[in-house]
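Hey all, sorry for the wall of text incoming. These are the two entities for the joint prediction.
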Amino acid sequence: MLVSALFELAEPLRLAMLVLGVLLGLTIGVIPGIGGVFGLTVLVPLTYTLDPVSAFALLLGMSSVTTTSDTVPAVLLGVPGTVGAAATVIDGHEMAKQGRAAEALGAAYTASLIGGLFGAALLAMALPVMRPLVLFLNYGDLLAITIFGMTLVAMLSGGSQVKGLLAALMGVLVSLVGLDPYEGVERYTFGALYLWGGFPTPIVFLGLFGLSELGALMGRGKILRGQAQPEPGGLGRGARAALRNWPLVLRSSALGSLLGAVPGVGVMVIEWIAYGSAARKPGPGPAFGHGNVRGVIGPESANNAKEGGALLPTLAFGIPGSATMAILLGAFSIHGLTPGPRMLDTDAVLLVTMILSIALANLLGAAICLGLTPLLARIALVPARLLVPLALVFVLLGAFDTNKSPLDLAVLFGFGVLGILFKSAGWSRPAFALGFILGPNLERFSVLTYQISGWTWLSQPFVVVILAMTLAGLLRRLMPARNDMTKVGAAVMSSPISRDIWLTGALTVVAAAMVLGSWNLPFAAALFPRVAGAAAVLIGGGIWISEKVARRVKGAALAEGSSVSSAPNQSMAGRPNQRLVAMAVLLGALILGFGHLAGPFLFVLLTLLATPSRRPLRAVIAALAVLAIIYLVFDRLVPQTWPAPLITSLFG
Amino acid sequence: MLKRALLAIGLAVGLGSVASADGLVTLQVGYSPGGSYDLNARLVAEYLGKYLPGKPDVIVENVPGAGSLVLARQMMTDPTVDGTHLATISSALALAPVFDPDNTDFDPRKVHYIASLSDHASYCVTSKRSGITTFRQLLDSPDAKVGSTGRSSTTYTFPAAIRAALNGKFQIVTGFQGANEIDLAMERGDIQARCGIGLDTISQGDFAERINVVAELALSPQGEMEGPAFALDFAPDPAARAALALVFASSSVHHPIIAPPATPPAVVQTLRNAFVAVASDPAFIAENARRKTGIVITDGATVEAKIAGFLAAPADVQARARDYVR
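and here's what came out:
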């Protein structure tokens, strides 16, 4: 059967479709902000005209590899290529700063490849038992997994766990903006239609991680930090690191494919839980967040493994878990295929070609990325003054492409500033991200579990095991956490003084305002904001008071030193960030004013002409190249209507 | 230097104006790609351009959010007058003045209905493993749970109205993210039923083998399948029947296509004619059958007349219908 499936797939047109899908998937992955939905609009019309094997090769080819190439901007620039690469930024980009970009990419691709193959293999093995497997986890189990996921905040909090907890609670609160899942009432939308669906996750991540890392990049002047040089042989070292960490790769892959089989969980949840689980055992080398290769391997194996799992609900029941799978199901119905275990008898060869498509796409995607790595790794040597404007163009366009609304840019800037503040005050952005991703699931799964099984869910065997594990993990960390509370004062002394206290105060005020703002909401819609908000106010108030006390104790001794210690911080972190925000605002204004083609063209031209070296020819070539890429991707590949530039209303 | 900068700005302005004048017609979908609204819109878009003046390309864009209310509200204030901007939104919004009279975000009487793409009935189904095989049994089961995505969706309004009007004992579980989650929960045995499901979903794969179709929710029996009870026949009195019918009415103008309020009558007519022409295009008919999309195009004038009829229901019927879904 394997041989006949290979023959089926080996036809030139079908292979060409697979390659086309892979190339499209890699392109979508590498350009920040545009995700799988973008690719689907390209693929849908094609899918209906192809035979099933070709159609599935195309669809699966694309969806299998976006999470391979999205690592490139995540590692090199700190800008996640898709929402599925945000966790990879943390350690991957840190490695790039240390001259270990090739190592991070080598480890990421190898982990992605093994994860992808694992997902395909698991899919193959799961086919005979696919129905029970898909139904294995109910909402009670998912709630327990989500609670477990929330406790991973402890691993992601960096220096201070209480601040990490506050950051996570703020993430939860921000994620609750929009229509609530139970009553359908507006929560914290201020009447803005834009916020009904909540803050768009891709834009939040582009701001939180992308903009703040680009600001830091401006400050350093280049990707490499200080005297760091690219380490030779990194690619092989990264690949070997992934192989050496095979238990982590397999564990993360299993997690990815199992959770991938649950509609409504999503790649973001999978990635962050994989990252947090990897952080529980950091292994040798730097701490997590400081360039630990396991922080790249964990999430990268999980997000590629999910594709195998994601096929299961569609194959088992004909119930699609995502837009890609819905289109796949559409192709099924056109070709008269009936999903379900009977396919094992009637369409076994086709099933095998689907599994092979996933496996081959992963091989091809990893091979292409590995082949390009030596070239890509040299980006680390390009000066930031050239790199940042080009990266900004794609970050802003990717964000603007979401709703084509000026508010897309406002949200990007808002979370960009929050990311910059968090980063410069040493607060954990991953903890915020985890809260933001898991918040809605925590609420939805609680509401559903309570309606479906009341309190009996607590007696489900899987729930008992997961919650016991969670509790044990928490107890183990209780002592360090308590110490941590007393250490807060000492720790903040080394961080920029006023910024830290102000940030704590501001977050606490926001949380308090959200609690107060929930007064007129129906009970079911108000419950989560109130609980999360009250906890945030308590913790924030606690941190604020303890910092104040600690400062007062040491205040006299540091009275003179504090002004000295904050000054270098201003010049090191403050000004590049201000410059970055100014550049981003300028670019945003140009996009709105002159359109999505002319705006970026002008921006690249102006910023490159403003660099000290000022080489006009190079600036024009770069601007034209950017223009060509934007036109090909955003106008030719996916034709779409862009809002009329403001300047046309002046003349029209 | 200044000359160069001016040259660049001139070039850029030129590019900006070209990009905004490319003569496309955009059909926006208020839901994510891959759903039935999306697939229907994409199929029609392939054929629509042929019947519009200048034979423009018709592109499909997804603007998901709040069960298509986000797109519906955007259409209310859209200034386009030349018919180049169309949208497909929830059929339930046609009854917004009945169910949410204080809300003026979307007014079906202000936008122009160009066509509707489906007039199929809606159904209540139960899972085979639930042991519930008849509509009466579903009504009388206090332990039965019916799944729903949210209170504004027909997965909630239909069962809620049935429960209120027909004295049903079942529970409604809300908060599922999409219909696919409801179906999986039904397979798992977490819930037992779903109401507001279309024929296209029922006939997908071998789904029909695992469910009982217990009731048809429509204004008159459509005869699409043997077996299901006709829900309106269970109404205890004419007033309850009329109010329940008003709740189900939206299924007869399913998958509507609308144009912004500012569109002049002549342009509206041109657009409606184009949809009528698509309906009889042999290539479209063949493709509709091949893709099993089940599109039935109804002319916009008929759709608008139907909606006007629903909205002209007596005030007491409207008030009762409103109470049912509250």
